[in-house]
């Protein structure tokens, strides 16, 4: 059976590292990294995410500044707030929690965030830099997956990585990151033919689809490393469960290593957000940061 990749433990280590470095920044440079989190409206899932981000930021020694705006906030008002945060020297990272209400143009809002403060890594400048293989702020979920892979495998070079799902927030940036690690990358999606056969060739499988247990045991090459990004809420036998995009009970028998859901990729995402805020704060003063774990 596969070994379990303990995302919770890795995330705790990463948060401890952020905390350690934040303390050092404060002592040596009088600099406290600040993360502004903007939430428009009252989506219950977003509310939980934002509360977690604020709490973990505080625990890691970052200043977190929460901006909760009513659903009827206009696009102009939101853009004005972002402009203000862009110019605020105490703010090093700006995160606008998505999705936004329908009357606000998401893309316009993402464009408005200063690229140097874009800790989600969604601004086209950062997207472009990532695809050009340049150093930049990396989207948090693929960043977390990369750190888990580096920790699990002795080397990524030359391995065949098959990514299932081509979203802008997970699949596409994941492909760019793994190319930079010298993997051979295949990016698959809903129109891919013979998906099972493509996945059978993979040394690394990354599932980011949003379909419960799509990836089956007989799709997996024995010994492969399987990362499950999916978070799906299902009800089975009257009980609510969180399940991934991978049929865990089948795949765990075949794979070499696998992330559980929950407790795999999820905890890494927020830890990487904190790490990005630290990177942005250092960048604002030209301070070099030592490498992540
Ligand atoms: P998305 O809906 O934006 O994209 C899904 C992708 O899957 C699309 O590219 C689509 O082409 C592909 N797809 C759909 N059906 C398919 C099929 N049958 N076969 C192959 N490909 C198919 O989703 P997303 O935002 O990338 O999120 C994917 C999953 O990851 C969701 O479950 C989401 O909740 C989860 N997620 C988790 C985290 C985390 O922190 N762990 C972060 C982001 C997303």
TrEMBL record:
Protein function: Catalyzes the oxidation of 5,10-methylenetetrahydrofolate to 5,10-methenyltetrahydrofolate and then the hydrolysis of 5,10-methenyltetrahydrofolate to 10-formyltetrahydrofolate.
Q: Quaternary structure per UniProt?
A: Homodimer.
Domain of life from the UniProt record: Bacteria
Instruction: Quote the SUPFAM superfamilies the UniProt record gives.
Output: Aminoacid dehydrogenase-like, N-terminal domain, NAD(P)-binding Rossmann-fold domains
Provide the leader sequence positions: none
- NCBIfam families recorded: PRK10792.1, PRK14186.1, PRK14188.1
What is the name listed in the Swiss-Prot or TrEMBL entry for this protein?
A: Bifunctional protein FolD
What InterPro entries does the record point to? Aminoacid_DH-like_N_sf, NAD(P)-bd_dom_sf, THF_DH/CycHdrlase, THF_DH/CycHdrlase_cat_dom, THF_DH/CycHdrlase_CS, THF_DH/CycHdrlase_NAD-bd_dom
The organism named in the record is Zestomonas insulae
Any one GO MF term held by the record is: methylenetetrahydrofolate dehydrogenase (NADP+) activity
Q: Which UniProt keywords apply?
A: Amino-acid biosynthesis, Histidine biosynthesis, Hydrolase, Methionine biosynthesis, Multifunctional enzyme, NADP, One-carbon metabolism, Oxidoreductase, Purine biosynthesis
Q: Tell me which PROSITE patterns the record gives.
A: THF_DHG_CYH_1, THF_DHG_CYH_2
Per the UniProt entry, the Enzyme Commission number(s) are 1.5.1.5, 3.5.4.9
Q: Which residues form the Tetrahydrofolate dehydrogenase/cyclohydrolase NAD(P)-binding domain?
A: 139-281
